Fold this sequence. Notes:
The protein is an alpha/beta fold. Helix content is 44%, strand content 14%.
Amino acid sequence: MFQDLAGKVAVVTGASQGIGRGIAVRFGQEKMKVVVNYARSEEQALQTVEEIKAAGGDAIAVKADVAKEDEVINLIQTAIETFGSLDILVNNAGIQTTVPSHELSVDDWHKVMDTNLTGAFVGCREAIKYMLAHNIKGNILNISSVHQKIPKPFHAHYASSKGGLRLLTETLALEYAPYGIRVNTIAPGAIATQMNEHILSDPNQNKDVLSLIPMNKIGETKHIASAAAWLASDEAAYVTGVTLFVDGGMTLYPFYLKG
């Protein structure tokens, strides 16, 4: 646990389930005030809120489609109006579809880009505006993927959005380091979430995935949440502009183990 996080205000996008939920609940365990963003399932978001409160934190649920600029702006403003400040933003919301690249429509390209990259940019912009105006040495975490590094056939829009997120992180980290605002990326590997349930429940697909992971096990949301808590804390006060891969070694060219 990180005592310096107690009482801080965080916005976590896409926090009704999966990795976002895991981060939001961990922040609750750190006694933080958390804005749980969701796009569709209010019921799941409210369950996350209750978990946060049960863990000793405080929380509200706010509906916002991060692909829409006005809704992201409202999300940030609601956090500030409700809890009186903003210390940490976690851009976690993301979507993907599987499409051969030669059949990928511009509309489908934009849907993924608008959520995964443009939405993150707008969140960063609004958070940084507030932090600068109030002299807050804040913290932004962008949740990327191993596919900011590993090409992903049939997911050109998704991989491109994650590669862009890495450079967005590094650019903002460099630009705002003089103001004490840190910006980092967490890149998860294969994590047991609802998004991956169809793969993990299939023995053959599960075996294929495990063959890509040197540690030979699927990650859990708590592993990403622990990384997020550390990067948000003063323990990581000298860390900015980095990508922390939490992937069991997936990005370490595992095929060399067979050589």
